[in-house]
């Protein structure tokens, strides 16, 4: 495998990691706020908080890691995307800032400020929308290079069906992934009332997820024919994705094996994500930038790969420890030990 | 007010983000070390007050970490959004430390999460303490890596520039550039000074308000001993930084000191005013001091600005005043720390109470130390204008050409204002609602060791 492909694969895996953990995080924030509105807060709040509190900071790092790595391996991405994405990028940043800090303010600082909960609940839904437009932009047609200057057209972006379809898919998926995870977590905590609520959320977001995926297929065919044809070449991945979707929904429907159901959800999105990514290659920005243009020099690529492997050697055991202590620790999950905040 | 210029607005927005981020980042680097120290002493001496100290600091730390994380994410992305042309060229050489920084950040984030939620989970108290080591190591390593990037911008090396592209890059050589040792040393040590004063000021303020619990005394003693050690170290490293500037960036040193003629026996200039004809008025001059700062002897020849082309001048007034302010504040902090150390010995041996003016001095040390950090950073950054990559790339060549930077500047200004005010309010509320005396009583710690 060439360094270019290796670099992109690694980054794509990290973005997938972000997709899963951030979805759980953003969705949980929204459900947490929604439960205040519907008066069911007492039922599900503790389950959500017990999961989110130790991991909220880690989520952010996945995203930063992806961006730094992308520019490290492919410096031209900074040139093309940096200039064009000033506004959407800055808006995403502001939302991330609001969400991150107000989550902490609400959890550690104030006692139940509804305003803070509203801020982090809503910003959690807007972030995937903002970030997914960047994915839409990578399909080309919105960034134009003329006479060595980069221009980005908002009217082109929002005068087109494709970005909307991606935004809808992102929103729906966030709620679906999050609800599926919370279902598993509530079941593990043996918290029946919470389980009933989040299970309903999970099932009600299942159908919209599939419909939104179909919408994206339809829109991408009209927007970037070549990418769509590439995706057809990897049709088996999307078929497998659908199979795992059915497995997940059926398991939750039958109220068994919630853990396996969530793994199926990960496979569902994994196959779709890597199928989409594989078909997107070699383009980073259609049609200007491929992974083979101005790749970082060999010495740096090698250093990055070494740093990456060394980093993983510390990261994986640490993440494992985190999961073991908070996710797979029965007494913590059930909240049986008297839990003292810091 | 002035015509739209993306370079100027990019500089302002980057500066604004960094000015806000630096406060929280400094706290983020220093506080874990102080928490570790308090917890370690607490376990070692079996003193519950130190353990409580660690716990209370950790609680407040979560709020500052949150703002530090989000402003850090902001600057990470803004590098690409505001300086795409710079990143396209230099991204090749600085990718490694940036990448390593995110790893360090990862480790810190993971173990901080574990640390905060496992206070009473382990029977062996050292196990919990050990969790803090990766947090402190991670935050210091982040500071290390990100400072090497900044050092590279001041002393770029480890590449050949061929047709505007960096070729033959040696990532390690680029990272370990001449500016790196003094920069990293100064950044780390001054962060510890700042945090010592910020935490010490909380205790001093309580004592000034007449609260007499022994907890505050212990808190003040611990933080001020740290402040003394780190202030001494930062003075030493500051001196080395002056020698570095003399050897590698004499333009910056000359601008900071309004030193126009290349001479030996150069005087150090404090305060004063600069006329448009480059005459220095009303300044205090310390003979030979600049030569001694630069090379260790009065005979050292210090390069003057006359040897520098005018279009390579950084803004002379800002640079000089900020440099003076940084040094003045640093000296103030050192003085207070020394005074406290003496007063504390007399307090122990002869029972002389700590003077109120000294307590006020410690309280003032908190904002002063933050101001020192800010003025030092702004001096260092403005002092290398007009270069973004010293001697290689001018700032104007690195900036974005986007027509919307001004709007983004206002948006971020509002965001930072709101975040700063809210985080300060929350911190104050958090500790006001839960004063230490009440927490001690509710935990049943009263009657523990008295000193």
Mean residue pLDDT of chain B: 86
Low-confidence stretches of chain A: 337-342
- Derived from helix and strand composition plus strand pairing, the structural class of chain B reads mainly alpha
Largest sheet of chain A: 2 strands, antiparallel
User: What characteristic shape of chain A results from the CA principal axes?
Assistant: globular
User: Approximately what portion of the residues of chain B adopt beta-strand conformation?
Assistant: under 5%
Keywords (chain A): Cell membrane, Membrane, Transmembrane, Transmembrane helix
Protein name (chain A): Cytochrome bd-I ubiquinol oxidase subunit 2 apoprotein
Family (chain A): Belongs to the cytochrome ubiquinol oxidase subunit 2 family.
Subcellular location (chain A): Cell membrane
Keyword list:
heterodimer, A: 342 residues, mainly alpha, two-stranded antiparallel ribbon, 13 helices, B: 451 residues, two-stranded antiparallel sheet, 14 helices
Structure description:
The complex is a heterodimer of chains A (342) and B (451). Chain A is built from 13 helices and 4 strands. In chain A, the strands form 2 sheets. Chain A has a two-stranded antiparallel sheet with strand order 1-2. The termini of chain A are far apart. Chain B is mostly helical. In chain B, helix 1 packs across helix 11, helix 2 packs antiparallel against helix 3 and helix 7 runs antiparallel to helix 10.
């Amino acid at each position: 495998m060439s360094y270019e492909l290796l670099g992109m694969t690694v980054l794509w895996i990290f973005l997938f990691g972000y997709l899963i953990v951030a979805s759980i995080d953003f969705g949980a924030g929204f459900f947490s706020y929604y439960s205040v509105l519907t008066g069911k807060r007492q039922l599900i709040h503790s389950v959500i908080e017990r999961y989110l509190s130790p991991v909220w900071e880690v989520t952010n790092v996945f995203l930063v890691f992806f961006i730094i790595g992308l520019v490290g391996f492919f410096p031209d991405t900074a040139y093309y995307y940096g200039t064009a994405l000033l506004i959407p990028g800055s808006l995403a940043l502001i939302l991330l800032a609001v969400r991150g800090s107000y989550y902490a303010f609400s959890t550690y600082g104030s006692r139940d400020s509804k305003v803070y909960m509203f801020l982090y609940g809503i910003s959690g839904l807007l972030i995937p929308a903002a970030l997914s437009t960047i994915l839409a932009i990578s399909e080309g047609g919105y960034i134009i290079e003329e006479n060595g200057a980069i221009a980005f057209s908002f009217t082109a972006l929002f005068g087109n069906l494709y970005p909307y379809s991606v935004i809808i898919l992102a929103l729906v998926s966030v709620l679906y992934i999050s609800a599926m995870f919370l279902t598993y977590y509530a079941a593990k905590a043996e918290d029946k009332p919470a389980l009933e609520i989040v299970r309903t959320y999970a099932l009600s977001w299942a159908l919209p997820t599939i419909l939104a995926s179909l919408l994206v297929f339809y829109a991408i065919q009209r927007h970037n024919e070549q990418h769509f044809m590439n995706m057809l070449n990897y049709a088996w991945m999307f078929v497998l994705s659908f199979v795992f979707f059915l497995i997940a929904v059926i398991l939750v429907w039958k109220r068994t094996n919630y853990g396996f159901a969530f793994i199926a959800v990960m496979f569902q999105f994994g196959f779709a994500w890597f199928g989409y990514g594989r078909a997107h290659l070699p383009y980073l920005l259609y049609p200007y930038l491929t992974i083979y243009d101005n790749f970082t020099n060999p010495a740096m690529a090698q250093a990055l790969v070494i740093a990456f492997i060394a980093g993983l050697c510390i990261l994986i055991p640490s993440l494992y420890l985190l999961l073991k202590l908070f996710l797979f620790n029965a007494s913590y999950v059930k909240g049986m030990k008297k839990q003292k905040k810091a | 007010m002035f015509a739209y210029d993306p370079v100027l607005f990019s500089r302002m927005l980057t500066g604004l983000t960094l000015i806000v981020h630096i406060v929280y980042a400094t706290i983020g680097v220093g506080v874990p070390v102080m928490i570790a120290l308090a917890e370690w002493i607490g376990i070692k001496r079996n003193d519950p007050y130190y353990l409580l100290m660690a716990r209370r600091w950790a609680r407040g730390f979560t709020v500052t970490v949150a703002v530090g994380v989000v402003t850090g994410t902001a600057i990470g992305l803004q590098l690409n959004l505001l300086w795409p042309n710079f990143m396209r060229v230099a991204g090749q050489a600085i990718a490694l430390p940036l990448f390593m920084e995110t790893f360090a950040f990862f480790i810190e984030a993971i173990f901080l999460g574990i640390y905060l939620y496992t206070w009473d989970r382990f029977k062996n108290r050292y196990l919990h303490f050990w969790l803090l080591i990766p947090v402190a190591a991670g935050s210091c390593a982040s500071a290390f890596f990100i400072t090497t990037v900044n050092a590279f911008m001041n002393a770029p090396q480890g590449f050949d520039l061929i047709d505007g592209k960096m070729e033959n890059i040696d990532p390690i050589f680029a990272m370990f550039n001449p500016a790196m040792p003094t920069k990293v040393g100064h950044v780390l040590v001054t962060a510890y000074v700042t945090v010592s004063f910020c935490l010490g000021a909380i205790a001093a303020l309580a004592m000034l308000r007449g609260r007499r619990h022994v907890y505050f005394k212990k808190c003040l003693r611990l933080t001020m001993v740290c402040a003394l050690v780190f202030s001494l170290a930062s003075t030493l490293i500051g001196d080395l930084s002056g020698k570095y500037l003399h050897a590698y960036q004499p333009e910056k040193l000359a601008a900071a000191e309004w030193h126009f003629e290349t001479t030996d026996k150069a005087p150090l200039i404090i305060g004063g005013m600069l006329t448009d004809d480059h005459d220095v008025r009303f300044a205090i001059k310390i003979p030979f001091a600049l030569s001694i700062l630069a090379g260790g002897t009065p005979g050292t020849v210090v390069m003057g600005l006359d040897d520098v082309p005018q279009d390579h001048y950084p803004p002379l007034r800002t640079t000089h005043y900020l440099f003076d302010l940084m040094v003045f504040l640093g000296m103030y902090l050192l003085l207070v720390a020394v005074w406290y150390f003496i007063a504390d010995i007399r307090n122990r041996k002869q029972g002389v109470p700590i003077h109120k003016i000294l307590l006020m001095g410690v309280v003032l040390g908190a904002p002063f130390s933050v101001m020192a950090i800010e003025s030092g950073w702004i001096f260092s950054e403005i002092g290398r204008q007009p270069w973004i990559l010293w001697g290689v790339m001018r700032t104007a060549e690195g900036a974005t050409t986007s027509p919307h930077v001004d709007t983004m500047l206002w948006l971020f200004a509002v965001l930072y204002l709101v975040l700063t005010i809210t985080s300060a309010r929350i911190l104050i509320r958090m500790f006001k609602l839960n004063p230490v005396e009440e927490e001690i009583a509710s935990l049943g710690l009263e009657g523990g060791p008295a000193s």
